[in-house]
Design a protein that fits this description.
The protein is about 20% helix and about 35% strand. The longest helix has 13 residues. It is globular. The chain has a 4-stranded mixed sheet with strand order 1-4-3-2. Strands 5-8-7-6 form a 4-stranded mixed sheet, with helices on one face. The chain folds into 2 domains: about 55 residues, 2,3-Dihydroxybiphenyl 1,2-Dioxygenase, domain 1 (Roll), CATH 3.10.180; about 60 residues, 2,3-Dihydroxybiphenyl 1,2-Dioxygenase, domain 1 (Roll), CATH 3.10.180. It has 3 helices and 8 strands; from the N terminus they run βαβββαβαβββ. The protein is α/β, with parallel strands linked by helices. This is VOC family protein.
Length: about 130
């Protein structure tokens, strides 16, 4: 089974560049959507807001004003957590959430260019 998480974006080209800058591969691009490949089983679909709106019956939320979900990426080391979040911040993201440097867990977050909340998480064996 695969997982495709769909998020609305205001400027698709800008969002594609952002995720490319973070080192992700894009797949299945069209004029109104692109897939960020997390791994072979998980993709985050970037849909232009007007296209996203055609798939829903409720209003499209503004991720810059409210949080509907937190997208968490599992990393293998705290250094990978820092590397990803630092790349995101350099590419225009803003810090989000509260860093979690707790025993057994290291976690930092950022809001992407549209305000979607992402976290990089490393669970460590104790």
């Amino acid at each position: 089974m695969q997982l495709f998480v769909n998020v609305p974006v205001k400027d698709l080209d800008r969002s594609k560049q952002f995720f490319t800058d973070l080192g992700f591969t894009l797949y299945g691009m069209s004029d109104d959507m692109a897939s960020v490949v997390i791994n072979g089983e998980t993709h985050v679909m970037l849909l232009a807001e007007p296209t996203f709106a055609t798939y829903v019956t409720k209003d499209v939320s503004d991720a810059g004003k409210s949080t509907e979900a937190i997208l968490v990426l599992g990393m293998e080391s705290p250094a990978q957590v820092d590397e990803l979040v630092d790349k995101a911040l350099s590419a225009g993201a803003t810090p989000a959430g509260v860093a979690q440097p707790n025993p057994g867990r290291y976690q930092r977050g950022f809001a992407d260019l549209d305000g979607h909340h992402w976290e990089a998480l490393c669970l460590m064996q104790g």
